[in-house]
């Protein structure tokens, strides 16, 4: 893969979102719990990043870490679904295949509430770990099957932890995906020029609650809420100057589903709902479909 350091080159397309706004906002909720690597699930190692860094010796079951993740589906999911319903905000849930396979009723509750189910890999792991295209293709296929079996809808979008592999995009194109979100390099979607039909819907790690788990990140809920408000202010102003934009905001069931961080989620949704038609709140599949019809290329 060659690196494109130019992008639109400052020549922004005359893109208007379906409601006439110049700023689209994608709210993403990660549904990973049960797909993190755990020795108790037969994996070679346990996930080390959680509420605290795991201190369990390598190769041994970390029951505490398992429970930290389980909080997301046992409690956080319902708190967040209720908030999305009250504020009438649509979201895209990035779903790991193994998480869906072990809790299909929860995945179904998400789509029955009107949210998008996108693929997030079979496990919560970087796809750069794969050593063969065949192995990765098999996991992509069983992830899509798990989501379709649980929700009745086949995913059209994909994002994995960390980095994609050298083969990921070709595999996604071959399996009929509409978009990939493994990109952090723009404020606008763009076409993958080497893979016709595949749209790139960039994601963001700064407006993302994973930074509560980073030592240089957010500590109190107001800090992330203020950061998102600053991003909205900048992008709204640029949009009003005729520069179309996309803002991505990422959450996790086990992170902002916790009471002490939930005000970030609740406050973000309230702020977005109050903006009305100044923004287009959309699922990522809707964003990709609109850009497929309107972006040049």
Topology:
Elements: E1 23-31, H1 63-87, E2 91-95, H2 97-102, H3 104-112, E3 116-119, H4 133-151, E4 157-158, H5 168-174, E5 179-180, E6 190-191, E7 199-200, H6 221-240, E8 245-252, H7 262-274, E9 279-281, H8 284-294
Parallel strand pairs: 1-2, 1-8, 1-9, 2-3, 4-5, 5-7
Antiparallel strand pairs: 6-7
Give the integer mean of the pLDDT values: 96
N-end to C-end Cα span: 19 Å
Strand content: 5-15%
Residue windows where pLDDT falls under 50 for at least 5 positions = none
Helix content: 25-40%
Number of helices: 8
Task: Give the biggest beta sheet.
Answer: 5 strands, parallel
This entry's quaternary arrangement is single chain
Shape: globular
| Rg for CA atoms | 19 Å
Short characterization:
With 297 residues, this protein is α/β, with parallel strands linked by helices. The protein is built from eight helices and nine strands. Strands 1, 2, 3, 8 and 9 form a five-stranded parallel β-sheet that branches.
Explain how this protein is built:
With 297 residues, the chain is of the alpha/beta class. It contains 8 helices and 9 strands. It has helices spanning 63-87, 97-102, 104-112, 133-151, 168-174, 221-240, 262-274, 284-294, and strands spanning 23-31, 91-95, 116-119, 157-158, 179-180, 190-191, 199-200, 245-252, 279-281. The strands form 2 sheets. Strands 1, 2, 3, 8 and 9 form a 5-stranded parallel sheet that branches. Strands 4-5-7-6 form a 4-stranded mixed sheet, covered by helices on one side. β6 (190-191) and β7 (199-200) form a beta hairpin. α3 crosses α4. The two termini are 19 Å apart. The model has no long low-confidence stretch (mean pLDDT 96).
């Amino acid at each position: 893969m060659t690196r494109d350091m130019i992008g639109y080159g400052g020549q922004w397309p005359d893109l208007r979102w379906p409601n006439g706004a110049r700023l689209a906002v994608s709210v993403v909720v990660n549904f990973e719990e049960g797909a993190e690597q755990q020795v108790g699930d037969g994996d070679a190692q346990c996930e080390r990043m959680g509420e605290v860094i795991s201190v369990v010796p390598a190769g041994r079951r970390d029951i505490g870490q398992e429970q930290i993740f389980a909080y997301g589906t046992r409690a956080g999911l319902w708190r967040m679904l209720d908030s999305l319903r009250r504020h009438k905000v649509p979201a895209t849930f990035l779903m790991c295949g193994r998480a869906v396979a072990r809790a299909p009723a929860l995945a179904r509750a998400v789509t029955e509430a009107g949210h998008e189910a996108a693929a997030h890999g079979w496990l919560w792991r970087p796809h750069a770990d794969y050593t063969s295209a065949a192995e990765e293709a098999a996991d992509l296929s069983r992830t899509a099957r798990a989501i379709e079996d649980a929700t009745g809808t086949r995913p059209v979008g994909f994002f994995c932890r960390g980095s994609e592999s050298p083969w990921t995009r070709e595999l996604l194109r071959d399996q009929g995906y509409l978009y990939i979100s493994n990109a952090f390099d723009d404020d606008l979607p763009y076409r993958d020029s080497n893979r016709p039909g595949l749209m790139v819907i960039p994601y963001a790690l700064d407006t993302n609650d994973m930074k509560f788990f980073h030592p240089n990140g957010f500590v109190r809920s107001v800090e992330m809420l203020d950061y998102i408000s600053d991003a909205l202010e900048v992008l709204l102003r640029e949009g009003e100057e005729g520069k179309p934009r996309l803002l991505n905001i990422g959450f996790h069931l086990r992170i902002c589903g916790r009471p002490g961080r939930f005000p970030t989620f609740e406050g973000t949704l309230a702020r977005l709902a109050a903006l009305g038609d100044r923004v287009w709140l959309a699922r990522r599949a809707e964003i990709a479909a609109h850009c497929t019809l309107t972006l040049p290329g």
